[in-house]
Design brief:
Length: about 350
Amino acid sequence: MQYVPVVSSTDKPLMPCHPARARELICKGRAVRRFNRGLFYIRLLDREDGATQDIAVGIDPGSKKEALTVKSAAHTYLNIQADAVTWVSKAVETRRIMRRGRRNRKCPHRANRMNRTRGGIPPSTKARWDWKLRLCKWLARMYPITDFVVEDIKARTKGQRRWDRSFSPLEVGKQWFYDELRKLGHVETRQGWETKELRDDLGLKKSGNKMAETFDAHCVDSWVLANWWIGGHCKPDNKAMLLIVPLRFHRRQLHAMQPAKGGIRRSYGGTRSMDFKRGSWVRHPKWGLCYVGGTSGDRISLHSLSTGVRLCQNAKPEACKFLIFASWRTKGEGASSPR
């Protein structure tokens, strides 16, 4: 059963309700429909506050796929399987090669300087953990989350204190993530072997196919972690999943890597397509619900939310109805469409 998230008239997260109850509140004019990047929820018009129960989020990090489960003692509200952000390290390497090439050509360039906004964390590490944090903040806007339970992962140790605690990018990024997560709620961690013991105690099996889009691939661990902390069930009561795929945006570059005829290097990249920000969800008369891709002349391209396949590249901007800014696409049983 897919319970509907509820927020108050002041946007405070309240306890989710049964879909029939949500329809009743909408029909009586006590609530309005809302939609937020793959999740349908309702906003109450006559309540500013309400009683809530403890809700935990289990988090199972991974190198290619990761999972999150939102659960209370009574119900499992949402299971998410998200693709990890894996392209940043190669993008940084390409940027370095292009910058060095420009210096060898004696092109105008700035002096190299440290990016202080990362706080000393490598770009690929910061992108991976920041992706998890963005999902947690997104969920915290619609669910009254009180606790986060994370499967703690460890970097390869060398027996050297400075490396093990300070120099390992994984350890530095993980600690940054925990510090930021504590601003949202209480944080608990469990080792991988402890997660396996909890899973075995419940008689649950984990799939060996880590790339499968099934509950047993990753969500089983996030559910076990949330259930261990919040309690309430001996087996999963909701296996429906919302699949989330982060979108890769090619930021504005000075020019393309390879020159065209005559040595001309065309401009490349950008995050704006006419009047839309790339990745924005729009509704088109012909293609329905989709997201905005690139641009060509005075037309924009539209892509499928479920597959990412380009639907067209000649859509008129004025024919698209803007819905919401987004940096990911969704699919699966947990996804819902705005009506």
